[in-house]
Design goal:
mainly alpha
């Protein structure tokens, strides 16, 4: 298989992002309460519901595009959807990273880098 690395990174992104999005949908109230406290002393304190909705949309779009991109990569060799998925994933993780840094949650920010590295690598593989 020509794009095996890209395929597995896309599957990883699909799992991580769709699961996270579903969690936000199923437990919107719990996520909102936790994040409201998390960002209570930041410039984002009055924007938590809006920001949570933006992250939810980005996660679901990037996760579903990752799944479709992985399927199309194997079925047709086309990388266009996979690249869109990778870029949306990177935007999502950058937003999360920014939020964690602003909230001074440095361990949480480090965790997000674990997702950013393969996402950046995927973008590289899909554009060279």
């Amino acid at each position: 298989m020509e794009h095996i690395t890209e395929f597995f990174i896309l599957i990883m992104l699909a799992i991580a992002l769709v699961q996270s999005g579903i969690d936000k949908i199923l437990d919107w109230k719990g996520n909102l309460e936790w994040l409201t406290g998390h960002f209570s002393k930041t410039p984002f304190k009055n924007m938590v519901p809006f920001n949570l909705a933006v992250i939810l949309v980005l996660e679901m779009a990037a996760g579903l595009l990752s799944l479709v991109g992985a399927i199309l990569l194997v079925a047709t060799g086309s990388t266009m959807i996979a690249l869109w998925a990778a870029v949306l994933s990177a935007i999502n993780f950058i937003f999360l990273f920014l939020g964690q840094r602003i909230a001074k949650e440095y361990v949480g920010a480090q965790t997000i880098v674990v997702y950013l590295i393969p996402t950046f690598f995927l973008i590289y593989l899909l554009t060279v």
